[in-house]
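@channel anyone free to eyeball this complex?
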Amino acid sequence: MADLRWGVWGIDADRMTLSDQVIDLLRQGLGVDPAAAPPKVRPGAVDLPEPVLKPAARDALTTVVGADHVRLDRDSRLLHVGGKSTTDLWRRRAGDADDAPDAVVLPAKHDEVIDVLKECSEHGVAVVPFGGGTSVVGGVEPARGAFRSVLALDLSRMARLVDVDERSMTARLEPGLTGPEAERLLNAQGLTVGHFPQSFEYATVGGFAATRSAGQASSGYGRFDELVEALRIATPSGSLELGRAPASAAGPDLRQLFLGSEGTLGVVTEVTVRVRPVPEAVLDEAWLFADFATGADAVRQLAQGGALPTVTRLSDEAETAVNLAMGGDVDTESPATGGCLLIASHEGTSASVAAAEKATTALLRESGGTPLAADIGHGWRSGRYRGPYLRDALLDAGAQVETLETATTWARLDALGAAVRDALTTELTGAGTPPLVLCHISHAYPTGASLYFTVVAKAASDPIAQWAAAKRAASEAISRQGATITHHHAVGLDHRPWMESEIGSLGIEVLRAVKTTLDPIGVLNPGKLIPPA
Amino acid sequence: MADLRWGVWGIDADRMTLSDQVIDLLRQGLGVDPAAAPPKVRPGAVDLPEPVLKPAARDALTTVVGADHVRLDRDSRLLHVGGKSTTDLWRRRAGDADDAPDAVVLPAKHDEVIDVLKECSEHGVAVVPFGGGTSVVGGVEPARGAFRSVLALDLSRMARLVDVDERSMTARLEPGLTGPEAERLLNAQGLTVGHFPQSFEYATVGGFAATRSAGQASSGYGRFDELVEALRIATPSGSLELGRAPASAAGPDLRQLFLGSEGTLGVVTEVTVRVRPVPEAVLDEAWLFADFATGADAVRQLAQGGALPTVTRLSDEAETAVNLAMGGDVDTESPATGGCLLIASHEGTSASVAAAEKATTALLRESGGTPLAADIGHGWRSGRYRGPYLRDALLDAGAQVETLETATTWARLDALGAAVRDALTTELTGAGTPPLVLCHISHAYPTGASLYFTVVAKAASDPIAQWAAAKRAASEAISRQGATITHHHAVGLDHRPWMESEIGSLGIEVLRAVKTTLDPIGVLNPGKLIPPA
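replying in thread with the prediction:
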């Protein structure tokens, strides 16, 4: 079962609290008022609707997975109510569990997933595949679609490292393995996947595949979709085994239909991924650039020269000031501060890290970069998974905080950044809650880069409507700029309205045709990804 | 219009002739008898069926592209009868033009392609997209399917470099550009695509995309599908514009449905590709390894260490002996010869080439490699596009010669090579024409590699049936080994019987559903790629 708790991220031991100084800054800068923070409903006080599951369906599911693995208890249902977007958290904090799944079903193997999908198609029960429950786009919202009942298909029992091919450097993983579980099993053999998104501690291998995940080290190791050699997929229409070679010209690459399919076309039951040796050396560097344009140009040159560090992350001026202030590294009131922070981490053999450090140092110096103290790089690494805990603390303090991301070509990056920043600022300022908008390049490529925005404002009395308006404004700006609506957060419910501008009406018809073939009754994750006809 | 001539490759000025010494070796080693070579029917003597195209269809097409670009003349039709497999050449040599298209239509732009597809759907005319006509798997065979008429959609008028984005390092290309045309236009701006398959001199950008082409330098520059940023596609159901960013999590990557779709799902009308600077330095190296296993292990280590040369090609013992003998570099009768030849070419800046040379030299020496004279590497480069001309000369001399290729993981590579070699040898020896089977690793990846086989034997009295049996035996061996039926030659007609073992019956249903959505009447390249229901 997923570890994530009701309405917050992670485990209690890792909770963050804001210092008085930070709260003062939020109060002064954004008008945030901790005393006015929306009240939090405790899980025990949440009103949960009665589960709707016909006895025949329940019996059929019990026959497939056993009675212990068809759960209708309150705790199981509460922990599978949607994902971890800020809107999800506001809803949970307000005690909203109206969308709780009617049951949580936990299959143990591929054949059981196939049989669950067949029974759900037979009995008309919607199925929401559930890995770590970390979606921030509504991807695991237990939506019923046209059906009376919905179950969360929790994959946490399918969590084996099936085998490792050390000569080919691949590993077969089951989908329910969380990031740390997969790494622990592989590390024991000296291997790593090298995939570390911010959700790493809870997100699962199946989710990485189903959402085209990108991790903090993807500039070095590659995005998750680039690491996938083969997939096993369960659908209501049967099984698919895709990927017979490192590369093939045997028609369209059908793996690429399931990577990013978000549980709407099938359930990922096994993923064969490329693995690498656990790095023998890790070097975290931090550099400062005079401004974002100069820093971005340096990152572009690294990418186009084939010299990207394993982690490459360039913050804009605002994010740099906040990050350095929160790390205590720089006095933000000093006029000597300013500029843009680049985190550049190298991982590999001692020799490859030394060579990479030498090559990037030369280029970054020539491009106007100044090296900063090593502890700033180390600070980034130690805090790399802390963002969601900081969000919980900010929400507690009465702040609105959410992130969004996009990507485009290098030529269009400046205009995209300005358009999204303007859209967010205009919308939230107009609503009486002027925001702080932070931005960084989270991933770089030879032809372009992603932009990752963090927005902080005073929470409005209806924080869900407040963010919905801001998100809509940003998404429309992204769409107008011709950029992608999401670089690595996937589509779910939240980005679905922009899928037509992303792939056109004919592209959507293609997705619908594939879905009808694989899921004729339409039980798989209804309403996600594919706009309704 | 395509440059390739009836029944042979390329242009007369580049014809090859075999030396008496080579002919003697073929005679002695394989029983090849030039006097018994099948006779060649001259194009002028070929019996061409009357074109079948209803006046209403012809009028509609003329309205779309103009009378000059709807061609029913004998020469146009002759030059669009199928591709350039050895079987194609045997058929052309025998004067077989039964499958000639009824017309050749030459659109000038995307909207004309859309309108041609609509008119063909309306009038029931099959459409075979035709770029350079270099398919070796029956991909451009003018098959009618269920229709009375078929036209070749020749894309040679769509041959512009639309624009270049020098900051993002991308270029938009029209599909009819041949390899040399695209390189000439880009080289003028200091840029290159870096895609050089053996068919480079005649193959087109649209064909590279439609077949998931891999080039000789793809170990360095990446396969063509990895270079594609965006695609514009024309289908009978309308247009698709796919690819809005270097990477995206906005659902399945639909570009990957059209890369490798071989004209069955749509016509590629524009390709945006990643470009790089024209290399300032090129260094061709040749190395010798004691045996194939040792050489393959060195290549594996280069790939897994991220140090693959731009061109990485390892020949087995037999191919090495033939290559060195034909290049005049080594006396094949000397017992000192033997071993396996590795071609390792580095392209890039002077500094990157020097660094790559240093890194690979150290690893190749440690792995048991011995550097050979520089002229062997240069010889490979000067002869890199000569293979098809050599084939023409061999067919003239009464030899059967054809190639096939596959790919698998490193762990399975030895077994795959042995199985294919055995299948070819057993089949052809059983038919009374014992073959010479040569093999090389043509492309390497961190997780595996391709194997490229060249088969030479005495041509049987029915050389088409002779090769069909050998090809079937090899394909069944590949399928049994779990390898891909094609690494870079695509599917066409020849590999279609093995598509079900490649992607499963459900994978094929997915392709059929996509095709029905985009091409409801089924006019697009009927019978190719997707097995019939």
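from a first look: Chain B has a mean pLDDT of 95.
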